[in-house]
Amino acid sequence: MDEEALLAMDQADYMNAEQLAFFDARLLELRQETLDEIEASKVDINYERVSDVSDRATLEEEAQLALRLADRKRQLIPKIDKARQRIRQGDYGYCIESGEPIGIARLLIRPTAEYSTDIKNINEKRERRYEDKR
């Protein structure tokens, strides 16, 4: 099944077995890609001995950036695992706060999404208000 066929399905078929299998496969693929990217970034971090101070500073800055990127990717793995668990439990595709459908289009963009667009927007506004008060 491709994305177009998924989007063309009737709303009454939301999160049927075929859709769940599609997203499970997509999440599994995303997990492997993420692990591969993390591993590749470890290899990319080059700790060569460089005598020039500016070259060493550049290498250290690049290594710091690579470490931050790898950490961000590492944080995605539990989210993927959690989404796959929701598939097995039958909760995948539904907002964990409101119970409303998240929507195929949103899940295609962010297969680890836990909130509907409306709830996500409300939560982000709440967070911004909290940040502004600090």
Automatic annotation (TrEMBL):
Residues 90-117 form the Zinc finger DksA/TraR C4-type domain. Pfam families: DksA_N, zf-dskA_traR. InterPro entries: DksA_N, DnaK_N, Znf_DskA_TraR. PROSITE patterns: ZF_DKSA_2. Keywords: Metal-binding, Zinc, Zinc-finger. Residues 19-87 form the DnaK suppressor protein DksA N-terminal domain. Signal peptide: none annotated. PANTHER family: RNA POLYMERASE-BINDING TRANSCRIPTION FACTOR DKSA, RNA POLYMERASE-BINDING TRANSCRIPTION FACTOR DKSA-RELATED. This is DnaK suppressor protein. It comes from Methylophaga aminisulfidivorans MP. The lineage of its organism: Bacteria, Pseudomonadati, Pseudomonadota, Gammaproteobacteria, Thiotrichales.
